[in-house]
């Protein structure tokens, strides 16, 4: 498992967090229990199985629901 911190554009409202969380949790290979979107810092944190999904796939899912990814860090 890898851990990712994804810096997002500024989030305007709590429903933005829910949209992003829902999109990421729906992805195969993401540990759904670890997904957290932090409103004040506009970050998403999660663990994922790099054998099943890539950070690019996760970023694309966030972009598809209408939010810009600024950068990602994977450990």
Structurally, the number of domains stands at: 1
| Widest sheet: strand ordering | 2-3-1-4
**CATH fold group:** Alpha-Beta Plaits
H/E series = EHEEHE
Shape, per Cα inertia axes: globular
Compute the CA-based radius of gyration.
Answer: 11 Å
Terminal Cα span: 9 Å
Number of strands: 4
Helix content: 25-40%
Residue fraction in strands? 25-35%
Structural commentary:
The chain is α+β, with helices and mostly antiparallel strands. It has one domain: Alpha-Beta Plaits, CATH 3.30.70.100. The protein contains two helices and four strands; from the N terminus they run βαββαβ. The protein has helices at residues 14-25, 55-64; strands at residues 2-8, 36-38, 43-48, 69-74. A four-stranded antiparallel beta sheet has the order 2-3-1-4, covered by helices on one side. Strand 2 and strand 3 (43-48) form a beta hairpin. The radius of gyration is 11 Å and the shape is globular. The chain starts with a strand and ends with a strand. The relative contact order is 0.34. The mean pLDDT is 96.
